Amino acid sequence: MIIDGKRVSARSTFSVINPATGAAFADVAAGDISHLEAAVAAARNAFPTWSATGDTERQRLLHAIGDALQANMPALMELVTRETGKPLKGLAGVGAGMEVGGAIAWTHATADLTLPVEIIQDNEEARIEVHRKPLGVVGSIPPWNWPLLIAIWHVIPALRAGNTVVIKPSALTPVATARFVALANEILPPGVLNIITTRSDSGVGPAMAKHPGIDKMVFTGSTATGRKIMQDAAGNLKRLTLELGGNDAGIVLPDVDPKAIAPKLFSVTFHNSGQTCACLKRLYVHESIYESLCDELARLAQEAVVGDGLKPETQLGPVQNKAQLAYVQELAEDARAHGARILSGGHARDGDGYFFEPTVVADVTDGVRLVDEEQFGPILPVIKYSDIDDAIRRANASPNGLGGSIWSNDTKKAAELAMRLECGTAWVNEHGAIQPNAPFGGIKQSGIGVEFGQHGLEEYTSIQTLKIMKSPPDA
Ligand code: NAD
């Protein structure tokens, strides 16, 4: 852990498992509430100076963090692969290289953002300015699927806007994040960025959400935990950014060539073994091309190279943890019991590690758990439709609203349909593609607020309106 710029150990440690082997590969300090108290105190203490530090200096320090990540890229990639199971390169280039490369790109892009003063009125009566001010201490809780990249998404805009931070990574994947925070602490003043590593049952997560010394929580994880954080945060009306679960629908129109489109659909569904919030998770396909697209997807699933992500040829790694593997198995069994056709995979692999064969499931429909719930694993339900309005209605009949996509050669028509999807990001002939300058977030029960770009940066600020009367008081 790093608290107030100093390395801190705890009375005990816990093991981090490499999901490709099922064996422990790292021991991490098991922090507790006393460490949280020290970290919040350090962050509060550092806030006045950091928030008053000039923009140019804060930008310079954040760019230096981006450079330090770059200089440590191979080591960070290996840590990411060991703790998440994500391949170094991965299917369609989505792997640990993308995670660390993305962390570097987001750091530099976010460092370059500014928060200009907005002038609402400037006339003979008064001048009205709208200022963006930092909130104070930000508490960050990221998940296990893209631990380093999501830590960067939380920490860098918070710091850019002038806040200080306490981060608590997932107990399943704390290692690369701890390394990032150590590198950043060689650059930042003490107390500006603190990290507590802790067991999942330590109570530190809920204590952060309740803590009166934390002004905002940024959380990425499941909807169920997001709900608890919202409740716990009510005590001091903490500001919240919640990036929660998704069950993204993709709708394929009849005018596409199934063979041509299948590889792209396969990669946006199965990269990181389906463990990405905005993976395509339900695929609605027009009946005229249903069988041929199912066949193509099943062939790609059978051909995919599944294995230890440290091997360069691996496209898909394991499921990140045992509980998630059991859940994916449960959804496959339930679909089978409801008469679904399993076209590829359908089973966990024998042997070490938490591997599940890439699985394409046909003849499954709404009302079955695999369609209604977020699978967060390498298993895709393919659902037949005949009427596009009905497909849109079914896509929208979900409590989630993270992303959605329409696939067609008629991009104008597809864009019109995409606008009817109830989700934070709608893609045409893409899915899950994000970038540092475009806002990203969920609607409905997929979250509150957005990340990235100007809109995302502003979430780490409060507005102060300044009205200056032009006539002196005694005039
Ligand atoms: P999770 O909710 O189980 O855990 C996330 C984090 O919350 C972990 O660090 C965990 O230790 C902590 N936590 C657990 N209970 C807590 C509590 N009561 N109070 C405070 N903290 C608590 O989620 P996960 O399994 O790590 O991640 C998978 C989920 O994350 C999926 O649903 C996925 O869709 C979602 N996700 C969303 C986005 C997005 O941007 N919308 C991105 C990535 C992942």
Could you explain how this protein is built, in words?
The chain has 2 domains: 2-245 and 438-466, 3-Layer(aba) Sandwich (Aldehyde Dehydrogenase, Chain A, domain 1); 249-428, Aldehyde Dehydrogenase, Chain A, domain 2 (3-Layer(aba) Sandwich). By secondary structure, the chain is an alpha/beta fold. The chain has helices spanning 33-52, 55-71, 73-84, 96-111, 147-160, 175-185, 204-210, 223-232, 258-270, 290-303, 322-337, 369-372, 388-396, 411-418, 453-458; strands at residues 2-3, 6-7, 13-18, 23-29, 118-122, 126-134, 137-141, 164-167, 193-195, 216-220, 239-243, 249-252, 282-286, 341-344, 359-362, 379-385, 400-401, 403-407, 425-428, 443-444, 447-448, 461-469. It has a 7-stranded mixed sheet, sandwiched between helices. It has a 6-stranded mixed sheet with strand order 9-8-7-10-11-21, sandwiched between helices. Helix 9 (258-270) links the parallel strand 12 (249-252) and strand 13 (282-286). The model has no long low-confidence stretch (mean pLDDT 98). The chain binds nicotinamide-adenine-dinucleotide. Nicotinamide-adenine-dinucleotide (NAD) is lined by residues 141, 143-145, 170-171, 200, 205-206, 209, 220-222, 225, 228-229, 243-246, 277, 374, 376, 402, 442, 446-447. Nicotinamide-adenine-dinucleotide is lined by residues 141, 143-145, 170-171, 200, 205-206, 209, 220-222, 225, 228-229, 243-246, 277, 374, 376, 402, 442, 446-447.
